[in-house]
Amino acid sequence: MKSFLFIILWFSVLQVTTLHAQKGTKSDKILNKLSKKIKGLKSFYVEYTASIKNDDLGQKDSFTGKGWVKNNKYFASYGENTLISNGLKTWSIVSKDKEVYESNNSDDEDAINPKKLMTLWEKGFKNKYVKSELLGNELVDVIDLYPKVPEKSNYSSIVVYISSSAIQMKKAIMKSNDGTVMAYTLTKFTSNPDIKDTKFSFDKKNYPGYKIIKN
To answer: Domain containing 186 — which CATH number?
Structure first.
């Protein structure tokens, strides 16, 4: 359940605000370009690998996942678990427990979804350019993100890796305040795929025997 809560943190806020970081730095220019690119898409599809580790809790998980985004709607999955949002409500489906957590999108403003991953620096974070390096065979820009108000943030730091040529998020390493380290690597990104709205509809008939819990 804990790993699923962290995937909700990674996969749940679609609202994007105006960038409030200091203007003109190298990291700002790169992040602004990526924000503009993501905002200009009508839809996108991603595939990723992830690992979640907390030495103090003895936690070490890894999984693969997929995400579909269209305007303010999204559908994300990893393993047998699923996250669905129709733009108004979000359903977090935990297969192991046969439970569905239903909430209003306005209640999930601190969580992260596929689109927020691409623009997570836009609200509540300062940024600092670190270096340029090779990630696999691709040159990426490494940028550190720090919360403006640490006591109100779930994260102590986030490191993002952005393709220098494609201006595309490639990897994010997120460190939470409890010592958990979450690493997400994008393995595929498709711009403007044709996605039917039914992809983002929750139908309880598809989950017989599941308990629906409304937050």
So the answer is: 2.50.20.10
